[in-house]
Amino acid sequence: GAVVSQHPSRVICKSGTSVKIECRSLDFQATTMFWYRQFPKQSLMLMATSNEGSKATYEQGVEKDKFLINHASLTLSTLTVTSAHPEDSSFYICSADHSGGGSGELFFGEGSRLTVL
Amino acid sequence: AQTVTQSQPEMSVQEAETVTLSCTYDTSESDYYLFWYKQPPSRQMILVIRQEAYKQQNATENRFSVNFQKAAKSFSLKISDSQLGDAAMYFCASYNNNDMRFGAGTRLTVKP
C-alpha cells in the first residue's frame, strides 16, 4: 500500500532553535498533505493543510509564522518549527491524500516527536 | 464545520469477545467519508475501516464492522473475536472537502 515517511522520528533541540520535519509520499504524488499535532493521551489536532505549489491553509489559532509549511513538490512537505520553545514539544504527524483529493484516502507518516529543552 | 464525538474514553474487552466503540459526528455536508483508525503504542495511525456516506451498506473488514446510522449521525465500530493485538487507541474520523477531523479517541484494553 501507499507509504508516507516522516523524518526525523525523534528530535531534541534547544529553546530558540528551529527544527524542520519532512513528510514524504514514497510511492504516490500528493497534492495535499496535512499536518497534525498530538499531545499525550489526546487526539490529533489539525494544524494546517499543505497544498503543493501554493500557501498552506492554517487552522484558527495556529501561528503561521511559528509553524512554516512548504510543499514544494508533489512528494514532499516540510514543517519548520521556528524559534522552538518547550511548549512546542509534542508529537507531529503528517498525512498525505492518496486519492488526489476528495475521498479521504489518507496515509499517515510515522510521526515525529519533538522535545524542546 | 465538522465535529466528531467519542463518548467512551476507555473500553475493556475479554479476549475472543466482542466490543463496540461508539462515535457520533456532525456535518452539514451531504458527501463525506467516515473512518476508524487504530493507534498502537508506536503512534503509527492505521486505517481500520472506511465508510462512504452515500453507501447504505455497512462496511466490513474481517473482524471489524461498522453500524452506520446516517440519520442519527452515528458510526460505531464492532470488533469481533477480540485479540490482544487489538489493544490500542481508536479514533473515529470524518472527512470531506479536504478536511479530516478526529474524535477524542477510545483506549481499548484487551484482557487475556
Q: What descriptors fit this protein?
A:
heterodimer, A: 117 residues, mainly beta, 7-stranded mixed β-sheet, 4-stranded antiparallel β-sheet, 0% helix, globular, B: 112 residues, Immunoglobulin-like, 6-stranded mixed β-sheet, 54% strand
- The secondary structure category of chain B is mainly beta
Tally of contiguous helical segments of chain A: 0
**Please, what is the oligomeric state?**
heterodimer
- The separation of the N and C termini of chain A measures 37 Å
Give me the strand/helix succession of chain B. EEEEEEEEEEEE
Give the topology, please:
The complex is a heterodimer of chains A (117) and B (112).
Chain A: E1 4-7, E2 10-13, E3 19-25, E4 32-38, E5 44-51, E6 57-58, E7 67-73, E8 76-81, E9 90-97, E10 106-108, E11 112-116
Parallel strand pairs in A: 2-11
Antiparallel strand pairs in A: 1-3, 3-8, 4-5, 4-9, 5-6, 7-8, 9-10, 9-11
Chain B: E1 3-5, E2 10-14, E3 19-21, E4 24-26, E5 33-39, E6 46-52, E7 60-61, E8 64-69, E9 74-79, E10 88-96, E11 99-102, E12 106-111
Parallel strand pairs in B: 2-12
Antiparallel strand pairs in B: 1-4, 3-9, 5-6, 5-10, 7-8, 8-9, 10-11, 10-12
